[in-house]
Amino acid sequence: MNIKSYIKAISYYLPSYELSNAVIEKDFPEWSIDKISKKTGINNRYIASENETSGDMAVKASNILFEEHDIDKSIIDYIILCTQSPDYFLPTTACIIQDKLGLSTRAGAFDMNLGCSGYIYGLGLAKGLISSGQANNVLLITSETYSKFIHPKDKSNKTIFGDAAAATLISSDIGFAEILNFDYGTDGRGAENLILKNGGLRNYNKHSGETVDEYDNYHSDDNLYMNGSEIFLFTLASVPKLINNTLEKNQLDKEAIHLFILHQANKFMLDSLKKKCKIDDNKFYIHIENCGNTVSSTIPIALYHALKENRLVTQSNVLLAGFGVGYSWGGTVVKIK
Hints:
Strand content: 15-25%
Distance between the termini: 21 Å
Structural class: alpha+beta
Strand order of the largest sheet: 5-4-6-7-1-8-15-14-13
Radius of gyration: 19 Å
């Protein structure tokens, strides 16, 4: 028996503090508002407060989901939290979320540590749980506070990343999009190009001094490091193949896709991918201007707004693709009902 899986609803939460380009320009006068906007395509990003964690944001996004879509919490029988900034090493943050949301103690719950490909992997895991009869209604949450990892004088990462959480209900009951087939990839050789070296058990209790790169960005192994040029090269090499493989897995050609929603890394990256993959402007969706790169939440946030803007046409196919830290990548097609 093949049990189908559907995306029934999506909601998201943004923290209250708004980090605009004007604020960044005050700290880094050499970076004008226009320069930041032109380079990244981002005007604003939202930053979690000092005491606000990914777990807190996950709870807020989930409560927004339940209220916005009038969802009975009692139907949730599995929770997946995707985050690289958990509240604790242990216990599992998803277990804490189960309690704070008042969900059934019969629900399964676990965390997964993935970045920009995390939403795709989460959809795949949720589909597997439903297809195998282990769950009927999976709450997939993506929540990240990269801002807590960024050096205050690292203007490059500061202009790109924003904090956010998104909550998605995946169900065996018919929703607005059926989840079709997946393609995945991993290349751990690129791990050091997007990394936070200290804090885990490999470098437990280690602390490092600061360095300054050629662009006057400050770095430390205590903070998030991104080799932007290497990440760009990886993306241009892997994502076109990912898109082709995802199409093949779903027995579709590019013309059969109504809309492409890729991980919203930054405008320059997205424009480069659009050009290399030869995707028409009207088929390539971008939503990054007012929230920034929210890591695993970029795709659900974009999907939410595409739905609100009536960009998701009945019986059309939408290709979703995530890629980044790991290196890790994944793609799928959802069919709009």
